[in-house]
Amino acid sequence: MSAAPTTSPTTPAAPARVQRQWWIVAQREISERLHDKGFVFSTVFLLVVVLAASFLPGLLSGGTDRYEVAVTADTAALVGDAQPGEQDVQVGLRTVADAGAAEALVRAGDVDAAVLPGAGGAVEVVGESSVPSGLGDLLTARVGAAQVLAGFAAAGVDGATAARILATPPAVQRLLDPDAVDPTTTALLGLAFSVLFFQIVLIFGYAIAQSVVQEKQTRVIELLVTTVPVRQLLIGKILGNGLLALAQLALLVLAGLAGLFVAQRDLLASLPSVPVAALWFVVFFVLGFAMLSCLWAAAGAMASRLEDLQSTATPVQMLVMLPFFASFFANDPGTVQTVLSYLPLSSPMVMPRRVLAGDVALWEPLLSLLLIAATAAVLVAVARRLYENSLLQTGRSLSLRSAWRRAA
Length: 408
Description:
By secondary structure, the chain is mainly alpha-helical. About 65% of the residues lie in helices and about 5% in strands. It has two domains: about 65-165, D-Maltodextrin-Binding Protein, domain 2, CATH 3.40.190; about 185-405, no CATH class.
């Protein structure tokens, strides 16, 4: 009786292993980057910068300002009474014998300023090289109120009447659009989006190019292509670095939102579009990175040595830097900003800024994403041909024309 034919258990899995080779390459890229001290340092550095930008404004503007002021017996009464609006300011008075003693304290840095009698009945606020602006305004307001009260008393007006007159409420502000977004705040947050996109795309893009050219220079690539198809090698490199870039970006965005929530909750509450704009920014980043990353791989494939990478990567750097500088100077809403929000190379940096300002309809970022996707399809096809044609060419760097025309 003949034995039944058997099938090797590994045979059906072989095609699956071939199809998953891109994931093996991606895992290798991720592992190498995570063990790179430069990558870890840059991530920590950017995280510190984002958290500092979220916390420092609130810390610097919060709390109570404390000042020490020297006065004489003649001026102590003029600055002793606090005025409305001084809740976050405390002034300590140090009475001295005369003007000379007060000036000596100012020169020594023991007090922030001195209030002294001047010529012709005037009052002087004395500082060394300058008087802190908040303190100068406060002392001027106190001295002015005291002098007005003295003037009323000299005119025979009783103190209660004079105090009631001085307590007349000042003019109040009425806003026609209190929910309008502060343009300065949106401009700063928009610039933060641009800087993050530019920095991460540049860092990871150059890392992709370096990885490719290092494999060529060490001739490791000749071993890799014998087991991994060139196209899957390209996909793995882009995917591995892209996942790390996305993770770094998500970490920075979440850290920024958390910092705003903790340190500047009022600002975050006044800008309800911030989380929405941050989400759009992440989406735009994914497509924008996919659009440009293949070009970085092609730039690396066209170089034969690391020393040659700068020349082959310059065109790709220009595709990142020029839109960045354009978006950097297009802070004000208008025609230029609107046009840049639809151009595929600049829209990942500009459209989230417009979403933040709240002046876009839903279809606008969707249309912008479609334009990026269409451009990405073209650039990826071009970059893939350059990459495949250049990868095994060693000895010299290839020009763009040579890499394009060389038979795959």
